[in-house]
């Protein structure tokens, strides 16, 4: 079993909180992890109609039985909204009587909006949130070629399929057509699924690009309000990530729309009709797929240690662009992302262009993450292999 870095967060927060929420995309490994961390806890899955109906019909009996044990894992808890209210009542009853065991309730879910709504309404101050994403490169430690990793992605199941490309493609098909459709309907019952699917495919074709919501809506045949709404659904279901532009204190007029990325490249490959790693290499979006993976690795590097996302990009009105700015309390890191396997000093020119445009950040640390194997320094710029790219987003400078 692959060790998941989120385990440290879960164990730490279980020392101080009676309720732990573990949130993240479907099939990213949430249930496997919490079962492994709490092997003696009771387990219920609220996606199962029979289980949900039994608890709804007699919640007092359910919780009375649960209270006799060492703890309980409640999977996909958002399917029974009232369950958090009942847990609040139980915790309130404990005040002044006895302390409730910490880390007793482990709740998992894959719809971020519904989860957070329930938490803020009922269990603020009683619960800790741990977010999980698919495997990181630091967890998976792949030895395969870059195009293989981009095609398989880093969800545990397709990553484990290795060279069974058809099985990987079928997994992605099932993920989009079954899980995503069901979750989308749970958030928006009136959603037009055929148009929604078209919308997702259009987003895949725009991966790594600045969002033009009007053009996207027009191409899909929907209005901009619906397009905004559907982007929210995809974010809530952990399918896409919108990276915001960094323009703090900059006098030059800057682009202020976000860039579009997917949580995992396997889904992008499926939506683009890519069926083998060789097709990844040949696709015009190969560089964008590489950038997508690297962006997500920087986000995972923070998420896995319980930190907020610090990833931004920069582009001005003259189309000068920097792929990533990593923002820390007292400094920045400027990062270019290049799929090439060859080190060329000129590939870092965008960093110099950015520094020249923004005088107050000329001392920013400079990096290029690329598709090669070697870590080195060229003309004051640190070059980091994609295999170790998460090291770039650490509070202390990585050693090169």
Query: Biggest sheet, strands in spatial order?
Result: 8-9-10-11-13-12
Q: Multimeric state of these chains? A: single chain
What is the count of β-strands?
Answer: 13
Mean pLDDT: 90
Radius of gyration: 22 Å
What is the overall number of helices?
A: 17
Please report which band the strand proportion falls in: under 5%, 5-15%, 15-25%, 25-35%, 35-45% or over 45%: 15-25%
| Order of SSEs | HEHEHHEHEHEHHHHHHHEEHHHEEEHEEE
Helix content: 40-55%
Overall spatial form: globular
Stretches where pLDDT is under 50 for at least 5 consecutive residues are: none
- Termini separation (Å)? 30 Å
Largest sheet: 6 strands, mixed
Question: What class would the helix/strand composition place it in?
Answer: alpha/beta
Write the layout of secondary structure elements.
Layout lengths: L5 H8 L5 E5 L6 H8 L4 E4 L3 H9 L1 H8 L5 E4 L6 H13 L10 E5 L2 H11 L4 E5 L5 H4 L5 H7 L3 H5 L4 H23 L5 H12 L8 H8 L3 H13 L3 E4 L15 E4 L2 H7 L5 H6 L3 H18 L7 E5 L5 E7 L4 E7 L10 H9 L7 E6 L5 E3 L2 E5 L15
Helix pairs in contact: 3-4, 11-12, 12-13
Question: How would you describe this structure to a colleague?
Answer:
There is one protein chain. The chain is α/β, with parallel strands linked by helices. Among the domains are: 6-131, 3-Layer(aba) Sandwich (Rossmann fold); 137-233 and 261-291, no CATH class. It is built from 17 helices and 13 strands. β9 and β10 form a beta hairpin. The radius of gyration is 22 Å and the shape is globular. The protein starts with 5 loop residues before the first helix and ends in a 15-residue tail after the last strand. The mean pLDDT is 90.
